[in-house]
């Protein structure tokens, strides 16, 4: 009997000791591993709070408070465990406006002319509290992180007003990070005075998100806020000018013809109903109406203030960028320009590009290594990994190929010259023929870019093609065109595509089978992005601008084609057909970044 009692005592003691064991973080191969003690959603602690900011953007005389949702392992309460934070902020959590007739700007009008007012819409907020995505929670809480979400100003249960890239959209996440580090006030209610602290936070914060949610991490990082150690923006909009304009041209994001910054404002404005009229008057109908300029498309102080490249001086967060080379909504230049600048600043920087469209995060292993290094402080050598990771055309997104950098350091600019062929197809050659020919196209938006690329003969585009490739060609970086052209009217759309021919008409054809890269410009901005001048009909103007960045392998058997046309039915304003655009072939060239340079191209075509 005595022996049985001893066994029971030993068992209870062992059970008690096991119960007292604290949850332990696990790291393997430089990555945070799932910890079973953290992996029970039923035990996660979830709570809402409001963080006080340093601004009053809705003009009600009180500092705006941002709604914050927290999800954390219960051990942060029961064991006093402190963990780093993965933070995502968004204007979308409480719902968005629907698609109403006339919501977008009318695009069928002459360039430089005003058009009729568009229809405004109101957001009907979803639920009594924002519906927060669980994707970050399911990924990071089991790996030993606390996940924080917040609604951006003027959306959901957050005070303030949306500004779509204005200063308050940078200071709002900064305030949340300050609160996570004990430097700002948090409250248990929107209007109350009961405070709450982030006693469970180590103060180390990483931000991520896609599209607008990927823009906000960059916005926060440009404030230089202490505690924001790393960001992983996915397909971020890094400049609203580059989103809604292109080299002086009024241009829509892909799939949203006629959208502009004020449309996006209406789309996300889900905050307090009683504040909306004032916000609309101050932001949409004054600041945006006076600054967005759909007449000239010029770059100005309004757009400069919404360009995060201009605000990077104080940024110190480690940066892992992610984007698709065929994202024609938020185009790939958005990530590239920030990646370039961060690299110049010697920040820990990597870029991940895939060959698909909008969205698409890096592989979870890449993200895990990034957060493990900069939030948990585990020396896994991630800062010494390859700088560029690119998913090749037929590979899975989870299997990128590593490169020393992007653009590929072995890529060299190769100059191509145009030889006549209109209305058929001319030649694209590395040999300068000094052709004195001028060729003319007639603008007609009713012909899509695809139909123009496939046409053997048409007077609505100019096409110049390389010899048939006998070997694959690897393009990496920015192609640049210098074009000398004249318009029959004071304004003209200018669209340029690099395409891979013959066009693949199969239903399941990948976009990389046909589109290499694209570019658009307003010839009126030939001298300056910030000042356009009406064109004198018949006078030739020279302009140089870049295509969108790309890294693509053009397969043997294909031809590289440069297509020049005017109005792009999917992206530009659509004036009445008939404007003539004449190109001086002698003074027009394109440079294409080819791995191996001119010798590689010669080898592939001889």
Largest sheet: 11 strands, mixed
Estimated helix fraction: 10-25%
Instruction: Give the overall form.
Output: globular
Distance from N terminus to C terminus (CA atoms, Å) equals 96 Å
Model regions low in confidence, pLDDT < 50 over at least 5 residues: 7-19
Mind telling me the C-alpha Rg?
Answer: 27 Å
Numbering strands along the chain, what is their spatial order in the largest sheet?
Answer: 7-3-4-6-5-8-9-12-13-14-15
Which structural class should the secondary elements be placed in?
Answer: alpha+beta
Mean pLDDT: 95
Structural summary, described in words:
The chain is α+β, with helices and mostly antiparallel strands and 606 residues long. Helices cover 21% and strands 26% of the residues. The protein contains 13 helices and 28 strands. Strands 7-3-4-6-5-8-9-12-13-14-15 form an 11-stranded mixed beta sheet, sandwiched between helices. Strands 16, 17, 18, 19, 21, 22, 23, 24, 26, 27 and 28 form an 11-stranded mixed beta sheet that branches. Strand 10 (245-246) and strand 11 (249-250) form a beta hairpin. Helix 4 packs across helix 5 (212-221) and helix 7 runs antiparallel to helix 8 (273-291). It is globular.
How would you concisely characterize the structure shown here?
This protein has about 600 residues and is an alpha+beta fold.
Topology of this protein?
Blueprint lengths: L1 H19 L6 E2 L2 E2 L12 E8 L12 E8 L2 H4 L4 E8 L44 H6 L5 E6 L16 H13 L5 E2 L13 E10 L1 H10 L6 E7 L5 H5 E2 L2 E2 L10 H8 L4 H19 L9 H4 L13 E7 L8 H12 L4 E6 L9 H12 L12 E3 L10 E3 L7 E9 L5 E5 L8 E5 L6 H6 L7 E4 L7 E5 L2 E8 L5 E9 L13 E8 L17 E7 L3 E5 L4 E7 L14 E5 L4 E7 L1 H9 L1
Helix pairs in contact: 4-5, 7-8
